[in-house]
Design goal:
Layout (H helix, E strand, L loop, with lengths): L1 H6 L5 H8 L3 H13 L3 E2 L4 E2 L1 H15 L4 E9 L17 E4 L5 E6 L5 H8 L1 H6 L15
Parallel strand pairs: 4-5
Antiparallel strand pairs: 1-2, 3-4, 3-5
């Protein structure tokens, strides 16, 4: 959500809820938490780029360690994402488990179950979440 608000700070709660496929109240709560953490500038809903960058690089792997699961169908992520094809060495595919997924690979839980929904609707968000610089345990040379 924070990456979307960095790009579109004036986007309303209804539009965000539509993008993430959830209710307006389900969007309002995380925006409040982002403001309380200093990741959004309070009252402006504008991303604090420096704080967001620091949080992604230093906090993400501790707050949200990579959670891998069994092979399943889903949306390609990490080094398997289309935007990283040829950039990182190929390895076993990793996917966000999703209904109607087109790629088979090892499951990698997204930071939120809403991420794949929003990433399907907004290619920029998909690119921003692949890879996340803080998920060092995922974005490494594949085995």
């Amino acid at each position: 959500m924070s990456s979307r608000l960095v790009r579109r700070p004036a986007e309303g709660y209804e539009a965000l809820a539509g993008l993430f496929g959830t209710s307006t109240s389900s969007v309002h709560r995380p925006v409040g938490r982002l403001e309380a953490a200093g990741l959004l500038i309070s009252g402006e809903r504008r991303g604090n780029r420096e704080a967001l960058s620091e949080s992604l690089v230093h906090g993400l792997p501790y707050a949200f360690p990579a959670n891998r699961g069994p092979e399943t169908r889903g949306m390609p992520t990490a080094w398997s994402a289309p935007m990283l094809e040829g950039v990182l060495p190929a390895g076993p595919s990793l996917v966000w488990p999703t209904e109607g997924g087109t790629v088979r690979g090892g499951a990698l839980a997204p930071l939120s179950g809403l991420v794949p929904v929003a990433a399907r609707r907004d290619p920029w968000l998909y690119e921003m979440h692949n890879p996340s610089p803080g998920r060092r345990d995922v974005v490494v040379t594949p085995p």
